[in-house]
Amino acid sequence: MRMTEFFMPILRENPAEAQIVSHRLMLRAGMVRQAAAGIYSWLPMGLRVMDNIAAIVREEQNATGAQEVLMPTIQSADLWIESGRYEDYGKEMLRITDRHERPMLYGPTNEELITDIFRTSVKSYRQLPRNLYHIQWKFRDEVRPRFGVMRGREFLMKDNYSFDLDFEGGKRSYNKMFVAYLRTFARMGLKAIPMEAESGPIGGDMSHEFLILAETGESQVYCHRDLIEFDPNEAALDYSGDLQPIVDRWTSLYAATDEQHDAARFEAEVPADKRVEARGIEVGHIFHFGTKYSKPLGALVTGPDGEQVPVEMGSYGIGVSRLVGGIIEASHDDDGIIWPESVAPFRVGLINLKAGDGACDAVCEDLYAKLRGAGIEVLYDDTDERAGGKFATMDLIGLPWQLVVGPRGVKDGTVEVKRRLDGERVTLSAEDALGRVQG
Ligand code: 5CA
After folding, report:
1. Residue having the nearest C-alpha atom to atom 5 of ligand 1
2. 136 alpha carbon to ligand 1 midpoint, in Å?
3. Of 46, 56, 178, 244, which is least surrounded by CB within 10 A?
4. pTM of this structure
5. Residues framing ligand 1 (Cβ under 6 A)
6. Which pLDDT tens digit goes with each residue over 359-382?
7. Which sign, positive or negative, has the C-alpha torsion 215, 221, 225, 230?
């Protein structure tokens, strides 16, 4: 993509309304624009990152055997009245009336709708287990939408729903998601720690939140320091095998969010020098709630002995749009964002220090064509801005690699390669520079 053609409304000044760094940098880098309180438009730079995050989520879900569907944003109130949650959900639910005066709502979550799809389609235990997910916008009329996309009113969530015959099966499904979440967040360069959590309005008896540590996090968390060092990829993974040992390892050490925190247990179980009390951002939340929805909604299957049994269910959420902000909170410096390669909007930023100069243009065009030919996403700064401004913009938008082409280097046949992560710069031939950014 040529910067002269790219829609990237950069802000030079810090926007006054942004209280935390991710919100500030997302606005400055032209990733999002606020449309109303807690509601955002996603501009190309932001959408590219969100799409990359969603792609990782999708790949890791598919690897577990979960299948993608797409349910609507607008739901009929009927199912929610049937489950008993229509009243319970309170003011957070955006209620809508259609032209026939039928009560509708903008879905804050999808347990009812998926249970309805299930009950009308699956009748026998032989069709179990099943795990369906979608990546869809949700609306929650939060009292205090804030911190940009971190606590929005409209936000993109991956949510899946598992259906099993019995508790043991339900636990297996829960474990699969537990392990898939560890891998999903690790692929985004995040250290997400599973913590005992309250199940809140979703309900259920078993629940873990996945949190990344960040000063600006909304949750107070308490955990054993060793959890921060655990490697989510250390065990070879077979989703058809027994995942309990992996889950046991992660849950063997104390980790809890504020609501579940037990100070006495924390002190008894964690040596003083291993106690971490910090702030965290909840990026995922998994629930096992058994028959909470299948019973009232009559999602029954015929069991092996011919009896009718309500299915065991769980639901599993990942805050896809929140992750865009969360990753920035975890990875930035004074100059701007530092995107992990896996989610970066472009892998390479190509800077032409003297656009309009025949020799510089020729080298840049050649590099640009070769990078694209190699399937590498590149943003080519072909503008006539001065060098300082170009460097500042490239650092702000945080692409992992910068290729800098200027008249002096062109004369020597060299290009400067800068790695955004640590600022390391090396001068290489154009060919070696290409090799380096390809990794
Ligand atoms: N049905 C269940 C799981 S599918 C559910 O709704 N869980 S949740 O309420 O915990 O939300 C799942 C994830 O969505 C959270 O972990 C969080 O990352 C994200 N999320 C929740 N509320 C917001 C919000 N207001 N803005 C941005 N992301 C949010």
Report:
1. 317
2. 12
3. 244
4. 0.97
5. 109, 140, 142, 151-152, 155, 157, 159, 202, 282-285, 287, 315-317, 319, 321-322
6. 999 999 999 999 999 999 999 999
7. negative
